[in-house]
Amino acid sequence: MSNKSQTLMEIFQEILAASGNSSDSKSINETRILTALKEQAFKERKENIGSVLVKVVSDAQSKLNLTIKPEACNYCEGDFRDVVEAYNGIHGYVSLMVCTIGVLANTMNVAVLTRRDMAAAPINRLLKWLAVADVFVMLEYVPFAIYKYLVLPETLDFRYSWAMYLLFHMHFAQILHTASICLTLSLAIWRYIAIKYSDRSHILCTERRCSVAILTSFLLPPILCIPTFMVFDIHTKNVSDVPGDIAYHVDSDNQGKLYQINFWVHAVAIKLLPCSILTVIILWLIRALYSANQHQKNLRNYSACPAAEKMVKRQHKADKRTDRTTKMLLAVLLLFLVTELPQGILGLMSGLLGKCFFDRCYNLFGELMDFLALLNGAINFILYCSMSKQFRQTFRALLLQRHLARFLPPTASHSDSHNQNTAKTSVP
Description:
Layout: H1 3-18, H2 22-27, H3 30-44, H4 49-64, H5 79-113, H6 116-119, H7 122-155, H8 160-196, H9 201-204, H10 207-224, H11 226-231, E1 232-238, E2 246-252, H12 257-301, H13 306-353, H14 355-362, H15 366-378, H16 380-387, H17 389-399, H18 414-423
Antiparallel strand pairs: 1-2
Helix pairs in contact: 3-4, 5-7, 5-15, 5-17, 7-8, 8-10, 8-12, 8-13, 12-13, 13-14, 13-15, 13-16, 16-17
């Protein structure tokens, strides 16, 4: 007899024994159990006998005062659990610090990338909207972190207004974070096309297609998050014997098929699939960088006539600028991959292993995953400044006061700047 069948028989034997029918409990068998469950499922129009069994056991526990030993759940045990739980205790303070820095950094990203000499490149438009999405994610996370990690542990007041905000926070953050994923994926594909098909990039990488990519990145996430909208809702729970003493919380129905579908959509379609595509593109970009470096070495070793030497130097300068752009985008993509891949793996395992793994592992790493996601959005400003000369120059110009402008060397005219920007495809 299988373990599941044995467990079913033990439950029914305990129910019958507690009700005084011990003789009947000895004669019970697997066939009688399954037949009774199927008949009850047909009467109540349930999809499977599992939901009927849950109801039967729940009723028996309440009526007969039974205590059934829960199934052992030993996922995510070890010393690392203590380390993660120690971090969870300070996550509220850390997240508030990261959000404050991230909002300021991404606001500066938007200010720099919207300058006339920067906004001409389609890639910069993608980076700008990525910064906008990150700003709203962090701004919305601040009241959530303040109440959950600073106020709620002291008051233990699970009000309906808090449950409403928590539900809004869950959906809002999920939609905008998914938009960030779509924008990052668009950024990678855009760069891949610009390098792979450099001779046709002016045809393939147009302003109109960039606008379509940005619009799609914000319209697609609400569609992908529909299962989440349908699964999670506000529930109530009595916290004492006093009438009306109710705690409101956001929870899901973990018994339905929609619950499993939500995990698969979130883990595979939103996390793992983009990460897989990014991995392939990142490996290809690294290979392209290596080939470009070999090509530049060959050009430097090539002894040409003085006329051709100028052309070689000009080509070398253009290739160097392209390589800087690719390296910067590689850093952005790798940081994104390190952040999102663990979330996708945890979500997939939660869908495969069930609620036990979700409660023991996914919830355990929830705060750490939030920290990585917030850090990913906050650190891009440092990458841009460290790897883009044009970004640094534009940012420095924004910081300088007008009365200091006369001490600066003259800049290129608007027409010259426009002519240069039409030849550029990226930040550097």
